[in-house]
Amino acid sequence: MVINRQKRVRVASVPLETFLGRVMTLLHAPAGSVTVCLVDDAQMARWNRAYRDKSKPTDVLSFPANGASRGKNPSPSPNGAAHGTYLGDIAIAPAVAKKNALALGRTLSEELRVLILHGVLHLLGYDHETDNGQMERLEMKLRARLGIG
Q: Which residue in 83, 114, 90, 92 sits closest to 101, CA to CA?
């Protein structure tokens, strides 16, 4: 499910829903077990401060349903079985994504899809900050399969 709670950046939710479904199928994750919420910069900054002690908005945050925090979930679970039925929520700030897309030479649609994939991998237990490149290698492989840069 994709919920748009911001109005600053125009976003078509249906294509993102379709993409999320493709990601879940590809990763053998339970359908409907992830919610993506598009939020404004102010909300993202509050969450980034509360959960990561960072004082500015970021592009994406993942909130695992099992309460695991970054670096504390040692083994990825590609099928989500270790997490139960619901994996968690992903928050994305489209305004930040739009700036990043411009800097990276992507469209906003591509950037949002990259962020959804990145968030789902975190919900499955991957952590690029602690895994010696495992998540990044998988993400690059999946991006190629999904046709995103």
A: 114
pTM: 0.89
Angle, to 10 degrees, between the axis of helix 134-146 and the axis of helix 13-26?
Answer: 120
Summarised one tens digit per residue, pLDDT across range 86-115 is: 999 999 999 999 999 999 999 999 999 999
Cα–Cα distance between 67 and 63 in angstroms, integer? 7
Please give the full DSSP string across 10-68, using - where no structure is assigned. ---HHHHHHHHHHHHHHTTPPTT-EEEEE--HHHHHHHHHHHH--SS--SEEEEETT--
The contacts of residue 133 (CB under 8 Å, 6+ apart) are none
Tokens of 144: 């190629």
Residue 104 backbone phi and psi in degrees, to 5 = -95, 0
Farthest CA pair distance, the chain: 37
